[in-house]
Design goal:
Order of helices and strands: EEEEEEHHEHEHEHHEHEHEHHEHHHEEE
Number of helices: 13
Oligomer: single chain
Largest sheet: 8 strands, mixed
Distance between the termini: 13 Å
Radius of gyration: 21 Å
Shape: globular
Amino acid sequence: MNVKLSNARIVQEDRILEGSLEVQDGLVSLIGGPAAGNIDVLDCEGDFLLAGLIDLHTDNVEQCMQPRPGVNWPAPLAAVLAHDWQLLGAGITTVLDSLSLGDYDSGGARTAMLNEAIDGLTKARAAGLLKADHYFHFRCELSDPALLSIIERHIDNPGLRLVSMMDHTPGQRQWHNLTLYREFRRKKNARVWTEDEFALYIAERREHQQQYAPPGRSTIGRLCSERDIRIASHDDTNATDVDESHADGITISEFPTTVEAASRARELGMKIVMGSPNIILGGSHSGNVSAMELADRGLLDVLTSDYVPGSLLHAAFALAAKGFDLPEAVAMVTKNPADLLGLTDRGRIAPGLRADLIRVRLVEGVPVIRNIWVAGRQYL
C-alpha cells in the first residue's frame, strides 16, 4: 500500500517534525514535499508518528502458552498467533520472544513448552502468519543441570538474535533477599516450605550453581561467539557481577538491580536495558532499583516490555511527561534497541528504511494507537 501520511508530528531520532511522509513499496520514501500522483492521503490530525517499537525481551509468549500455572494451551499455533496480535496491538512491530531455557521444579514441563513455542513461532513465521517481525531471545538459567543439552538443541535456530546469562540461585543477584524469594515462590507456585525443607532446597540450588554455572557460562559464550550472537547479562547486583560479565565479553547489562551495578556497567561502556513496567509502576515489583532513577542518572539506554506488552509505548511517554525529551525517550524503544541488535533497516523514520510506523494520540496522558503499519502494510 502506497500512502501519504499528512498533518503528523513525526518523531525522529533527534527532533519532532510537523508535516508529512510518504510510504511506497514498504519503505519510507519521502518526508515532506508534495504527494506523488495517484497516491492515497491519510490525515493524521496532528497525531504523533513513531517508528514501530522494537522489544528485546517479552515473556508474553510464555503467558499465552501457559495462561495459568499448570495449564498448557493445547493449540500452540493458536497461542502464538494470539501473542502476535497482542504485541502488534501494543505497537510492537519487531520483537525478540524471550524464552527461558532451564527446567527447575517443572519436571520437564517448561522444556516441553519451550519446544512447542519455538516450533510454533518458527512455523508461523515461515507460513507468513505473523504480523510483527519475530526473533528469539534465549534466557539461559546457568545453574540448571539441563541447560547445555537444551541450548545445543536450539542454538542454530536462524531466528536467534540474543542470549542472556541468568543465575536465579536464591541468595544472590535478583534473589539476594531470601525472604522475598520464599514469598514469591509461595505466591507463584503455592510452594510452602518448612524451615528445614527451605534450607535443604537452598543448599541444593547453591551446589548446582557451583557445579553447573561456570561450564554453562563458558560453553554458551563460545557457542554465541562462533555464531555472532549477542549476549546480555541478567540481574547484575554489584560491581563484581558486572565485571564478571564484562570479562566474558558481554556488552549488554539487562535489568541491573542496583545503582552500583548500573553505574559500573556504564563505566565499562555496556548498554543498560530495563523493563518498562518498572517505569509505569514507579519502581520494581521485586524490590530492585527504579528504572526512573536510572534514567534520571543517565544510566538507561533501552526499555523492554518484559511481562506487559502495552507498557513499552506507555513508558516512553511517561518518561517524556517526567521531563525527558520525547525523541530521546522514543529512541529507547525504537532506535536504541535496533542499534543494539544491528538492525539497520528500522528503528527510525527516514527515507529508505522500513515503514514500520505507529500513529499515536495522547488521551488523558495515555498514548493511544490509532494506526499501525508493518513494512508499509496497514493493520489498524
